[in-house]
């Protein structure tokens, strides 16, 4: 009997891991962090781009270009994957890299309804224990999903220093 109960718990946990297949509904809180506004939970680009408290987003959208090969790969394979992104509105790395990520999204025409964006607190936790399920230890973390399963991720600046190039390489491997 204990074996059966244990097996059921593992199965339920595994099923909860594929929840990001669907677009998550907005579910966020506004908190204060060191006198500044911080978002926590399921958010979207508009919440950051349209709020002067996060002026870093629009300012940093002006700089740099996404990797051209990644743009083409995202265009060609946009129907085969989705993205799960963890970031902190308080985090300098997120402030630098999230706009670069959205440059790739804009240039490739990747549908924003296939992106789930989760804002973490300073402990890198978020709603619904997604931080635990996806073992988030650093932000930003960009996860590529195919049919709800992780096929690759880029954490912070990645291994090559160009998140758009690394995301493009992950997506290029999708069949």
3D architecture notes:
By secondary structure, this protein is an alpha+beta fold. The chain has a single domain (20-172), classed as Glutaredoxin (3-Layer(aba) Sandwich), CATH 3.40.30.10. 38% of the residues lie in helices and 22% in strands. Strands 1-2-4-3-5-6 form a 6-stranded mixed sheet. Helix 4 crosses helix 5 and helix 4 (68-77) packs parallel to helix 7. The longest helix has 17 residues, at 92-108.
What order do the helices and strands follow?
Answer: HEEHHHEHEHEEH
- What is the typical, i.e. mean, pLDDT? 90
Low-confidence stretches: 4-21
Instruction: State the strand order across the main sheet.
Output: 1-2-4-3-5-6
Summed up, the helix count is 7
CATH class: Alpha Beta
CATH superfamily placement? Glutaredoxin
What level of helicity do the residues show?
25-40%
Quickly count the domains: 1
Overall radius of gyration: 17 Å
Q: Between the first and last Cα atoms, what is the distance in angstroms?
A: 41 Å
Oligomer: single chain
CATH topology: Glutaredoxin
Strand content: 15-25%
Q: What is the correct CATH architecture?
A: 3-Layer(aba) Sandwich
